[in-house]
Amino acid sequence: MTRKSRTYPKSKSAETAHHDKYDESMESKLCKLHARVLCVGKIPDKYFSIYEKSQRNASSLKNKERADLELFDKYTQVYGLPKTHKNGKEMKWLTLWKMKAIHAFCLFIDDPKRCHKGRLMGLHQCKSSMKTLQFKQRVELVKVVTTLFTLMNVDGCRIGRYADKRKKQTPLYDENGHELLRAVTHSEIRDQHEFIWSSAITKTKYTDVINMLKLAGFFEVESCYVGNVEGEVIRHEMRLNGATAEEIGEIPRIKSVAAYKWFKESFINALLGVVPESTREMLRTSLDVAKADMAKKKLSSMYATHSASSAGFWTKKRKEFLQLLGLTRYPQGAPPAPNPYGDTLPELDYGWG
Question: Could you read off the pLDDT of 49-74 as tens digits, one per residue?
């Protein structure tokens, strides 16, 4: 009597192999390709080569080429060809290490529980441990994070912009003559999202994504308040014109400006902390080149903490902070005490650097 061959795997690794493999979704592939386009400013040449080959003889395409052609067709349908500057130059929004971080985050779309050794499970369960994030929520997370990365400073992971000379914005400089970073509003981020992804995002959906990142401990937002010096002038004029106390009181003494926003190092390390040494060296080189470019352009990674037309300064909107200082309102007048970093946001120590 012949012995039957074993129908089950001979090793534990072979038995559990199907748990480590999955079919990547088209949404994940599109996000990865779009991140590459935002990095190099154009669609990679190989997709055009495959398209030309398909026009000559479609039957000669291999399976991998057919998949790439399908991705190329879908990408051009959704996003079209990459945008360029008025002079025809390519628009590049991401550095190499940012693109690699986004590619790593795309694994969260299809495999949120096992990707990056489970370091993103807190984000997957940020709303409830019983009801995790849906597929479309994970896709939206990747898209919004990509948008934030296009506005992110290379050193410190702070979200902001420098003065736009075309809009006649006045640059703000530190004592060494380096231009300071300006915070951006949530409305500006949503406008950037529409430009980057060729599709608008509602305020409700955007707020929900930001809250998910904050609940997971990956993103921080600090409210910023400055003294309304112009309001004092307006109140004085109203007082001279016989306005009532109620009308004068409606003019705010404190006004808010764009909040400070930044990614925490736990998020960056979760994405890039497990990369191979060869990739890690490439990321270090990319970051060093970006920092050198900032130094050449005399750009600072610190936020501009003072308003150009006000003597006020920003503070956290927290009651315990006010009670600690013995204040009933937001502090006014004197600048904050200096510290080694130039502001009160934490400096990041990259675990992959």
Answer: 999 999 999 899 999 999 999 999 99
Residue-level pLDDT at 254:
59
Structural domain contains residue 121: yes
Percent of the chain with pLDDT over 70: 76
* Structural domain containing residue 148: 94-225+255-305
- Model confidence, pTM: 0.77
Round the CA-based radius of gyration of the chain to a whole number and report it: 25
CA distance linking residue 68 with residue 97, whole number of Å? 24
Q: Which region, left, alpha or beta, applies to residue 343 given φ > 0 means left and ψ of -120 to 50 means alpha?
A: beta
Tens-digit pLDDT profile for residues 183-202: 899 999 999 999 999 999 99
Residue 46 lies in a domain: no
Domains identified in the chain, total number: 1
Lookup result for tokens 């309001």 = 231
DSSP state for residue 171 in the 8-state scheme = P
Distance CA 272, CA 263 (A): 14
> Nearest-CA neighbor of 36 among 67, 68, 63, 58?
68
What ranges in the chain are assigned the alpha helix state H? 12-15, 26-40, 45-56, 63-79, 96-110, 121-124, 135-150, 186-197, 203-215, 229-240, 245-249, 265-272, 277-296, 319-325
Does a structural domain hold residue 346? no
- Quick one: average pLDDT of 81-99? 90
Give the mean pLDDT of the chain: 80
Rounded Cα gap, residues 211 and 116, in angstroms: 22
Identify whether 120 is part of a domain: yes
Which structure tokens are listed for 56? 């000559």
